[in-house]
Fold:
Amino acid sequence: MAFVLRFVQKYRPADREAFMELERKFTALEKRRPDFPKGRRCQPLAGRDAAHTLVWECDFPSLEAVQNVLAFLAADGEHDELFRRQAPFIAEAHTEIYEVLEF
Structure:
Protein backbone atom coordinates (compact mmCIF):
# COMPACT_ATOMS: atom_id res chain seq x y z
CA MET A 1 0.00 0.00 0.00
CA ALA A 2 1.51 3.35 -1.07
CA PHE A 3 1.08 6.75 0.55
CA VAL A 4 1.60 10.41 -0.37
CA LEU A 5 2.90 12.87 2.21
CA ARG A 6 2.10 16.53 1.55
CA PHE A 7 3.20 19.69 3.32
CA VAL A 8 0.88 22.57 2.39
CA GLN A 9 2.23 26.03 3.21
CA LYS A 10 0.41 29.28 2.55
CA TYR A 11 2.80 32.22 2.60
CA ARG A 12 2.10 35.95 2.57
CA PRO A 13 2.16 37.21 -1.06
CA ALA A 14 4.47 40.09 -0.12
CA ASP A 15 7.02 37.53 1.16
CA ARG A 16 7.04 35.36 -1.97
CA GLU A 17 10.62 36.11 -2.99
CA ALA A 18 12.10 35.43 0.46
CA PHE A 19 9.93 32.33 0.94
CA MET A 20 10.93 30.89 -2.44
CA GLU A 21 14.62 31.61 -1.86
CA LEU A 22 14.48 29.46 1.25
CA GLU A 23 12.51 26.81 -0.65
CA ARG A 24 15.36 26.70 -3.19
CA LYS A 25 17.68 25.99 -0.25
CA PHE A 26 15.42 23.10 0.81
CA THR A 27 15.63 21.76 -2.76
CA ALA A 28 19.42 22.00 -2.68
CA LEU A 29 19.44 20.18 0.67
CA GLU A 30 17.36 17.35 -0.80
CA LYS A 31 19.71 17.03 -3.77
CA ARG A 32 22.88 17.19 -1.69
CA ARG A 33 21.88 14.71 1.00
CA PRO A 34 21.04 11.15 -0.03
CA ASP A 35 19.17 10.55 3.25
CA PHE A 36 16.56 13.21 2.44
CA PRO A 37 13.24 12.39 0.74
CA LYS A 38 13.09 13.76 -2.80
CA GLY A 39 9.78 15.57 -3.09
CA ARG A 40 8.20 17.68 -5.78
CA ARG A 41 6.86 21.16 -5.34
CA CYS A 42 3.84 22.76 -6.96
CA GLN A 43 1.57 25.77 -6.64
CA PRO A 44 -2.14 25.91 -7.45
CA LEU A 45 -3.31 27.79 -10.51
CA ALA A 46 -6.98 27.08 -9.87
CA GLY A 47 -8.80 25.37 -7.04
CA ARG A 48 -9.48 25.69 -3.34
CA ASP A 49 -6.03 26.92 -2.30
CA ALA A 50 -4.75 30.40 -3.06
CA ALA A 51 -1.95 30.95 -5.57
CA HIS A 52 0.38 31.88 -2.70
CA THR A 53 0.38 28.26 -1.50
CA LEU A 54 3.28 25.88 -1.92
CA VAL A 55 2.74 22.13 -1.81
CA TRP A 56 5.63 19.73 -1.26
CA GLU A 57 4.72 16.10 -1.81
CA CYS A 58 6.50 12.78 -1.88
CA ASP A 59 5.45 9.17 -2.42
CA PHE A 60 6.25 6.46 0.12
CA PRO A 61 5.80 2.69 -0.02
CA SER A 62 4.17 2.40 3.43
CA LEU A 63 2.65 4.38 6.27
CA GLU A 64 5.64 3.34 8.38
CA ALA A 65 7.96 5.01 5.83
CA VAL A 66 5.89 8.21 6.12
CA GLN A 67 6.13 8.11 9.92
CA ASN A 68 9.89 7.47 9.71
CA VAL A 69 10.49 10.45 7.43
CA LEU A 70 8.38 12.73 9.65
CA ALA A 71 10.51 11.69 12.64
CA PHE A 72 13.68 12.14 10.59
CA LEU A 73 12.73 15.66 9.50
CA ALA A 74 11.75 16.64 13.05
CA ALA A 75 15.18 15.56 14.33
CA ASP A 76 17.37 16.91 11.52
CA GLY A 77 19.23 20.08 12.53
CA GLU A 78 19.86 21.31 8.99
CA HIS A 79 16.18 20.98 8.07
CA ASP A 80 15.18 22.61 11.35
CA GLU A 81 17.44 25.61 10.73
CA LEU A 82 15.99 26.23 7.25
CA PHE A 83 12.44 25.83 8.52
CA ARG A 84 13.14 28.21 11.41
CA ARG A 85 14.21 30.83 8.85
CA GLN A 86 11.20 30.17 6.61
CA ALA A 87 8.53 30.00 9.32
CA PRO A 88 8.08 33.78 9.71
CA PHE A 89 6.86 33.93 6.09
CA ILE A 90 4.28 31.16 6.53
CA ALA A 91 0.75 32.36 7.25
CA GLU A 92 -0.78 28.88 7.49
CA ALA A 93 0.46 25.31 7.13
CA HIS A 94 -0.75 21.77 7.49
CA THR A 95 0.36 18.22 6.72
CA GLU A 96 -1.67 15.72 4.71
CA ILE A 97 -1.20 11.99 4.27
CA TYR A 98 -3.05 10.20 1.48
CA GLU A 99 -3.41 6.51 0.81
CA VAL A 100 -2.93 5.72 -2.88
CA LEU A 101 -5.91 3.72 -4.13
CA GLU A 102 -5.11 1.14 -6.75
CA PHE A 103 -8.24 -0.49 -8.08
